[in-house]
Task: inverse folding
C-alpha cells in the first residue's frame, strides 16, 4: 500500500483486500496495555509488521509546528507533524470494542497503542500550533504525516 496518511503503517501489502485477508488469517493472542481504553480489548499478532508513525511531542524541536487533525471525525483532535516514519516493528495490534451493542474493530496498527487524545475538536481541525501550545493542550504524541 502506498505510504500516505498519518500514523503507523503496515508494510508489505499491495491492496486493502490483501491486508484484510492477512488480518483475518493471522494468529492473534489477547493483549493487555495501559493505553487500552476501558471497554476495549486488544489482540496482538507477530505475522504482520510495520513502521512506527508516532512521536512524543516533547521530543520535537522547540520551534516545531504541529497541525491539529480530526480526519476520523471522532470529535477530538490529534497532533500531526511532517516527518519520516520511525523504526520497523515486528507486530501489529488490533483493538476491538462495543459500538451500539455490537463488537467492532476500532483500529489496527503496528506497535503499542497510545492514550487517545481528549482534546475536543471545536473547529480545531487543520489549525497549526506550536509544540509548546500542543503540550499545554494536553497532547502528548503526534502522528507522523508522510
Result:
Amino acid at each position: 500500500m502506498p505510504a500516505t496518511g498519518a500514523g503507523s503503517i503496515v508494510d508489505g501489502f499491495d491492496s486493502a483486500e490483501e491486508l484484510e485477508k492477512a488480518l483475518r488469517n493471522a494468529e492473534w493472542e489477547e493483549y493487555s496495555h495501559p493505553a487500552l481504553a476501558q471497554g476495549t480489548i486488544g489482540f496482538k499478532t507477530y505475522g504482520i509488521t510495520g513502521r512506527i508513525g508516532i512521536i512524543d511531542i516533547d521530543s520535537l524541536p522547540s520551534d516545531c509546528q504541529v497541525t491539529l487533525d480530526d480526519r476520523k471525525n471522532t470529535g477530538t483532535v490529534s497532533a500531526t507533524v511532517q516527518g519520516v516514519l520511525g523504526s520497523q516493528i515486528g507486530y501489529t495490534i488490533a483493538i476491538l470494542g462495543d459500538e451500539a451493542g455490537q463488537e467492532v474493530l476500532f483500529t489496527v496498527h503496528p506497535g503499542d497503542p497510545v492514550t487517545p487524545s481528549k482534546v475536543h475538536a471545536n473547529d480545531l481541525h487543520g489549525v497549526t500550533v506550536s509544540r509548546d501550545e500542543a503540550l499545554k493542550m494536553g497532547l502528548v504524541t503526534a502522528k507522523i504525516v508522510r
